[in-house]
Structures are given as structure tokens and as C-alpha cells.
Amino acid sequence: MTVKRNRRKQTQSLQERLAAFAEKARERALSLPPGKEREMLLRRAKQNDVTSNLTDWLSAPVYPRRGDS
């Protein structure tokens, strides 16, 4: 018997979701005292920013390199 996957249609782009999560994580981190949880939230926010930038870079149009025809 196969298990049916729970599928969901996304209403926001990946970049929008990553940016929203990063913003919420930063806001929450600022309300916390210095410690492990605050550092974890700030690290995850930074990871989401990097992921968003990489996604933008990977989805950019490809330009031919010099020498390629």
C-alpha cells in the first residue's frame, strides 16, 4: 500500500518565503537574550539569505562564455 503525499501549492516564491523567514528569525533573535537560541536563529537567518541569493544566481539567464559559439 502506498502512502499518498501531502502536496501543497505555494502562493509565494521561494525567495519570498526565505526572506520572510529570515526577517522573522532576526526579529525573534533581537528579543532574546544572548545565548545559544539567539545565535541559532541568527545563523538560520543568514543561511536563508545565502540560499535566496544562490537561488537568484542559479535562476539568472545563462550568458555564453568567451570562446563558446
Keywords:
single chain, 69 residues, mainly alpha, flat
Question: Would you kindly provide a written description of the structure presented here, covering whatever features stand out?
Answer:
The protein has 69 residues and is mostly helical. It is 61% helix and 0% strand. The protein has helices spanning 14-31, 36-59. The longest helix is centred in the C-terminal third of the chain and has 24 residues, at 36-59. The termini are far apart. The model has no long low-confidence stretch (mean pLDDT 88).
As a percent range, the share of strand residues is under 5%
Q: Summarize the amount of helix as a percent range.
A: 55-70%
Tally the beta strands.
0
Count the DSSP helices.
2
Point out poorly predicted stretches: none
What number is the mean pLDDT?
88
Overall geometric form: flat
* Overall SS class: mainly alpha
Task: Give the C-alpha Rg.
Answer: 18 Å
Q: How do the SSEs run, as a string of H and E?
A: HH
Taking the alpha carbons of the first and last residues, their distance comes to 52 Å
Largest sheet: none
What is this structure, in a nutshell?
With about 70 residues, the chain is mostly helical. The chain contains 2 helices and no strands.
